[in-house]
Amino acid sequence: FQIDTTPESYLDLFPLDAIVYLTPDSENGKYFTCFRHRDTGAKDKVYILGGLVDESIRKKLTLQRAQEQSLQTARLPIREYMVKTVNTKNYHSETLAINQVFDVLATYYETRSWPAALKAGVSSGKGYTLPE
């Protein structure tokens, strides 16, 4: 994958209707059913991985930022493809590190399989697993 860095804002680089801000707080988990490779003729989208460097998770912060910028939002379809596991801490989280989100998206890009992609990026410590 080619990665370019720039001091410019994504808001200045891409049309608003092309930007999809990924946040675990979005209600939109089905957006990715439209996630396609450029060669299929589907419109290109720019996915922004909403990352924070923070010791505590502040709910809805990335969603709020996207809404303030009038951006479409989406989340990974964890709820749609995975089930909660029984664990001693009763811990379940859909919040992933940026590298985990990238692993999910890269695997989906290659396999076109959400179960395979989620298995690649969602660790068992998040309290979710694929159904048998």
From TrEMBL:
It catalyses: guanosine(9) in tRNA + S-adenosyl-L-methionine = N(1)-methylguanosine(9) in tRNA + S-adenosyl-L-homocysteine + H(+). Residues 1-132 form the SAM-dependent MTase TRM10-type domain. The keyword Transferase applies. GO terms for biological process: tRNA N1-guanine methylation. One of its GO terms (molecular function) is tRNA binding. The keyword Methyltransferase applies. Its EC number is 2.1.1.221. Keywords: Methyltransferase, S-adenosyl-L-methionine, Transferase. GO terms for cellular component: nucleoplasm. It comes from the Eukaryota. InterPro entries: MT_TRM10-typ, MT_TRM10-typ_sf, tRNA_m1G_MeTrfase_euk. PANTHER family: TRNA (GUANINE-9-) METHYLTRANSFERASE, TRNA METHYLTRANSFERASE 10 HOMOLOG B. This is tRNA (guanine(9)-N(1))-methyltransferase. The gene is Trmt10b.
